[in-house]
Amino acid sequence: MDPLAAKVAMSLGFDVLLRCVIRVLIALVVVALMVVIIVVQTVAGVLTGGTPGSTAGPTETVVTTPIAIPGPAAVLPPGDKLNIVQLAQAWLGVPYVFGGCTRAGVDCSCLVENVYAAVGIHLPRIAVDQFNATVPLSDPQPGDLVFFANTYEPGISHVGIYIGNGQQINAPTTGEVVSVAPVFTGYWGAHYAGARRARG
């Protein structure tokens, strides 16, 4: 800009206007960044089941010593066991979402809770509580529950529905879907904590 144009611009107040425009632009950029951060935290909270803005991840109560449940185990009628396996199969392919409890996304314990509720058996929401609300058995049958320990946290931390032949239907982990997996070999076999039966 030549000196005459600069003098004209200053006399008309363009330098003040330019400074104001720059300040407004900086303020808009700061506000936009804050909005982006809030949106990202909210989406992350929804996807992980945590509270938006919290730094701690979702929590589950962990009980390392099972609570003894008195009384004999009620045996599920064969038809109910078949229904449980069929109902679990209907969830195959649903994405795993920690804390999820719908067909849009489900975690291991909510899969079990939903399947059993469909045949009139109400189980607690969390895997360790389901473990404590069921009775142990040494020879799982289709429709029984299989539990795993020390997966993403210490103690009972995962559950699946036994479908026979050493296989289970479970909601495994983030990035995967409800699927069939071996119970007694591989990763799950290394973390196997026992089979249990729900009271009818």
Total beta-strand segments: 8
Measured between the Cα atoms of the first and last residue, the distance is 88 Å
How many domains is the backbone divided into? 2
**Poorly predicted residue ranges:** 48-75
Strand order of the largest sheet: 3-8-4-5-6-7
Number of helices in the DSSP assignment: 6
In angstroms, what is the radius of gyration?
28 Å
- What is the general shape? rod-shaped
Overview of the molecule:
With 200 residues, this protein is of the alpha+beta class. The protein has two domains: 3-48; 78-197, endopeptidase domain like (from Nostoc punctiforme) (endopeptidase fold (from Nostoc punctiforme)), CATH 3.90.1720. It contains six helices and eight strands; from the N terminus they run H-H-H-E-E-H-H-E-E-E-E-E-H-E. The protein has helices at 3-11, 14-48, 78-89, 108-117, 127-132, 186-190, and strands at residues 101-102, 105-106, 135-137, 145-149, 156-164, 167-170, 179-182, 192-197. The strands form two sheets. A six-stranded antiparallel sheet has the order 3-8-4-5-6-7. The chain has a two-stranded antiparallel ribbon with strand order 1-2. A hairpin with a 6-residue loop joins strand 4 and strand 5. The longest helix has 35 residues, at 14-48. It is rod-shaped and about 95 Å long. Residues 48-75 have low confidence and may be disordered.
Question: Topology, pairings included?
Answer:
Elements (H helix, E strand, L loop, with lengths): L2 H9 L2 H35 L29 H12 L11 E2 L2 E2 L1 H10 L9 H6 L2 E3 L7 E5 L6 E9 L2 E4 L8 E4 L3 H5 L1 E6 L3
Antiparallel strand pairs: 1-2, 3-8, 4-5, 4-8, 5-6, 6-7
